UniProtKB/TrEMBL annotation:
The keyword Hydrolase applies. Its EC number is 3.1.13.5. The keyword Calcium does not apply. The lineage of its organism: Bacteria, Bacillati, Actinomycetota, Actinomycetes, Kineosporiales. It comes from Kineosporia succinea. CDD domains: RNaseD_exo (cd06142). It comes from the Bacteria. This is Ribonuclease D. It holds the Pfam family DNA_pol_A_exoN. GO terms for molecular function: ribonuclease D activity. Keywords: Hydrolase.
């Protein structure tokens, strides 16, 4: 039976929100030993952007610290005393960008979620892993709350403190399992890559990721999506709200498809039934009007130019040999991933397999494939496991058309 973890062993510490108290935390963590458990809470479903609204840390000899990064936006002083230690995070790639914004930048990471994936666990969420490996029940009912709330309620702080309470113990359990499976060195290469990855650059045309874009089939309606998205983004940024709380993606797509000419026509659309949809009806109407007024030369292209291969669904028609290479490579990588008990995307990036299959080296050998994999960012452990297999599957011949011709 699982033991329910209801309260941190040292109690819930007060939130650190002033420089004097932060200095004491810095001194305590400088004197602490061993890994540093780190977590961050965002309010992405409530506030604009992905910034942190609470940072939690724990270290042997220092205890747990809950820090308000709104009141203390520069934590580089704390970073200076812990940067050389191993940081233990769960799903590090989710938290590192917002930690980077406040000056917390690790050099050595142990990602318990990524380690669990490599070890083949089917459920890799923090609560699931704590149950599986530590026999503890960790409440997660506050994971989606608005962490920008001030003051933060005590039950939320208890939840936040418990997240870092278990991380180092979970790290030891995941490390032991990776060692048992002979995968620890692979995991350490992955963790090093995570720590070395810079914060993501801004996306080109982020409005193209609006849910439902596949329904928009002409450039003028694309322009309407762009104008509506950018209007929503400006309002959300100004009001510090999650864009979806201002206007849902479904409303943007519906308005772009209908292209209403009046405000009354716009708010009569079924998706325009929320408070934000009606509150800013004039701005939405003006956005659609701008899209209507653009010259054809000012309309966005239907698709952004891409250096990568086309969608695999069209490969058979465009390049039957490439389609055969992709099918063989995918099958081989899937078989190997199953043998290794890990998700195939952790063995090799699907995009890398697509690019190699569409445009293989002129001379396909294990050496040339290794070079291409390395240039694509594959880690040494991955290259060792997959290069020879891909060198074989990339030589898969195109199917013989006569085999599909009943008259042949």
């Amino acid at each position: 039976m699982l033991e329910r973890l209801d309260a941190p062993r040292d109690g819930v510490p007060p939130v650190v929100s002033d420089v004097a108290t932060l200095e004491k935390v810095i001194d305590a963590f400088a004197a602490g030993t061993g890994p540093v458990a780190v977590d961050a809470e965002r309010a992405s479903g409530h506030r604009y952007g992905q910034r942190a609204f609470l940072v939690q840390l724990r270290r042997e000899g220092a205890g747990t610290a809950l820090i308000d990064p709104v009141a203390l936006p520069d934590l580089s002083g704390l970073n200076a005393v812990i940067a050389g230690a191993e940081w233990v995070l769960h799903a590090a790639s989710q938290d590192l960008p917002c930690l980077h914004e406040v000056g917390l930048i690790p050099t050595l990471v142990f990602d318990t979620e990524l380690g669990a994936r490599l070890a083949g666990y089917p459920r890799v969420g923090l609560a699931a892993m704590v149950e599986e490996l530590l026999g503890l029940s960790l409440a997660k009912e506050h994971s989606a709350v608005d962490w920008s709330t001030r003051p933060l309620p005590e039950p939320w702080l208890r939840y936040a403190a418990l997240d870092v309470e278990v991380l180092v113990d979970l790290r030891e359990a995941v490390s032991a399992e990776l060692t048992r499976q002979g995968k620890l060195d692979w995991a350490l290469e992955e963790f090093a890559a995570v720590a070395a990855t810079p914060p993501p650059a801004p996306r080109v045309d982020p409005w193209r990721r609006t849910s439902g874009m596949h329904r928009v089939r002409d450039r003028r309606r694309l322009a309407a999506v762009r104008e509506l998205w950018q209007t929503r983004d400006a309002i959300a940024r100004q009001r510090d709200l999650s864009p979806g709380r201002v206007l849902g993606d479904a409303a943007i797509i519906e308005a772009a498809l209908a292209m209403p000419t009046t405000q009354s026509g716009l708010i009569a659309l079924p998706a325009f039934n929320g408070r934000g949809a009606r509150r800013y009806a004039r701005q939405w109407t003006e956005a659609v009007a701008r899209a209507r007024s653009f010259a054809d030369s000012d309309l966005p292209p239907q698709h952004l130019p891409s250096e990568g291969p086309p969608p695999p669904r069209v490969w058979a028609e465009r390049d039957a040999a490439a389609a055969a290479r992709l099918a063989a490579s995918r099958a081989s990588m899937g078989e190997l991933a199953a043998e290794l008990t890990m998700p195939v995307e952790n063995l090799v990036s699907p995009d890398t397999v697509r690019r190699l299959s569409w445009s293989p080296p002129d001379e396909i050998t294990p050496e040339t494939v290794r070079a291409r994999l390395s240039a694509a960012g594959a880690r040494p452990w991955q290259i060792t496991l997959i290069a020879d297999r891909l060198a074989e599957t990339l030589q898969t011949p195109a199917p013989d058309p006569s085999e599909d011709d009943p008259k042949a």
